[in-house]
Design brief:
Elements lengths: L9 H9 L7 H29 L4 H28 L2 H25 L4 H29 L2 H33 L4 H25 L10 H4 L8 H8 L1 H27 L5 H34 L1 H21 L3 H25 L6 H33 L4 H28 L14
Length: about 450
């Protein structure tokens, strides 16, 4: 077999210290790492701006926005299913990202055209909430189609660390450019970054064949032709598969914890002005992503490979459940912030890469149709329901932070059990291919 550029070189040896990587996987892994880094930088440029807006609105207003996000997500995923059915596969991912880049350019034009910004701000809040899930869901679908099941177990956590580096760069750019250019111009910066991922996508498609040998030819009909099928097949596949229903439940329970913590923080920050809130949210993003890089790059892949996916998926729910019990005993702001940071680090570094490994055990149509139903519609449906649940518990029933924390701990226990179930199903489906050759030391 021909030697690929960089095989056995210093870069590959350095990567081998972080994850179990074979020489022929180096270029594809680095290209994927760079792609998600740029994508997440584009999102994190705009995330603090979106989150700062929320403190201007009541719990009910935000709940209605999350409800609107759910319905927009449902429509968007349905339209996406139609695109997946008809568009040539190799053009699918570049088309989706080009569309989002153009949407940000249109929002920028809107900021320059309207003096009354309330409706535009709320529309932006909903659109960024959709983008926050859509862009990363499509990325991981692309990854699940590029790498084999066993490669994913070893490499996805390291690739996911690129998202955290992007998460560090994004808030840094927001802090610097917002003062120099103003927040409106950040929309154009985010659009430009998304465009920069397009050549990386084309390169990864070639490396899948040239380096990984995971496809027969660049001219394979599955690359030229569309995936086909029913545009709404993702919904039916989700509803008829216990495996996919389990993944959906895992995400729903995650959103339950996340929604409660988000609302508590939103209310705690209401006394600050919008600029200060943006800085606080950006600072939290910086802290979370700094911690995530180390865990994702050096720990998660080895945990998944050596202790199994059941342990990996249940780890974060167990830790968060323990933290919520601490919050019930000591309901203070510092504990809430600590749980939020721990929850997000655990998700980005451990739960998210492990969850994405689950999709390497399904076919391409499921990866590019049902996966978006789970990642976006179920996620935003969970946000919507949990937002109203929080409003009911606090405003309707008058429960305090400690009582809500106890409820959250119970949810976390169920969340852990679902993770164990999914890990066992993944193993039983033969997803952890033990016959794959181990990467050789160089």
């Amino acid at each position: 077999m021909a030697t690929t550029p960089g095989e056995g070189g210093a870069v590959q040896r350095l990567l081998a210290k972080a994850c179990d990587i074979a020489p022929n996987e180096t270029r594809t892994t680095l290209a994927s790492f760079a792609m998600v880094l740029v994508l997440m930088a584009s999102y994190y440029i705009l995330r603090p701006v979106r989150d700062a807006m929320a403190s201007d609105w009541s719990d009910a207003e935000v709940s209605w926005l999350w409800t609107a996000t759910f319905f927009v997500s449902f429509i968007a995923v349905s339209l996406y299913g139609a695109v997946v059915t008809r568009l040539a596969f190799r053009r699918l991912v570049p088309t989706i990202y080009t569309f989002f880049a153009l949407s940000f350019a249109l929002f920028y034009l809107g900021t320059q055209s309207f003096s009354e910004r309330t409706l535009l701000d709320k529309s932006f809040y909903v659109w960024i909430s959709l983008f926050s899930l859509f862009h990363i869901s499509v990325f991981w679908s692309f990854m699940a189609d590029t790498f084999t099941k066993a490669q994913a177990t070893r490499l996805f956590a390291f690739i996911g660390a690129g998202a955290s580096i992007g998460g560090l760069l994004g808030p840094t750019l927001t802090a610097g450019l917002a003062q120099q250019l103003g927040t409106d111009y950040l929309l154009l910066v985010a659009a430009l970054l998304i465009v920069l991922t397009l050549p990386l996508i084309l390169w990864i498609q070639r490396l899948k064949v040239a380096d990984l040998h995971n496809a027969g030819s660049l001219l394979d009909t599955d690359q030229i032709q569309a995936i086909g099928g029913n545009p709404l097949a993702g919904f039916s596949e989700f509803l008829t598969s216990r495996y996919l229903l389990g993944i959906g439940l895992f995400i729903f329970l995650y959103t339950s914890i996340g929604s409660f913590v988000y609302f508590e923080l939103k209310n705690l920050l209401a006394d600050y002005d919008r600029d200060t809130r943006s800085q606080i949210w950006a600072g939290m993003d910086f802290a979370v992503n700094s911690m995530t890089i180390l865990v994702a790059a050096f720990v998660t892949g080895r945990i998944a490979r050596r202790l199994g996916l059941s342990f990996t998926l249940a780890l974060v729910p167990v830790l968060i459940g323990a933290g919520l019990l601490v919050l019930a005993a000591m309901p203070t702001v510092s504990v809430v912030v600590g749980i939020q940071v721990a929850r997000r680090v655990g998700n980005y570094a451990v739960s998210r890469p492990a969850r994405e490994m689950l999709f390497t055990a399904v076919d391409r149509e499921t990866r590019f149709k049902a996966k978006q139903v789970i990642d976006i519609v179920i996620y935003r449906g969970g946000d919507m329901l949990n937002a109203w649940a929080f409003t009911l518990l606090t405003t309707g029933l008058g429960l305090g932070m400690a009582a809500v924390a106890v409820i959250g701990a119970g949810i976390a226990a169920v969340w852990a059990l679902v993770g164990i179930y999914l890990g066992r199903r993944f193993r039983d489906m033969g997803a952890a291919d033990t016959t794959e050759a181990e990467p050789q030391p160089t």
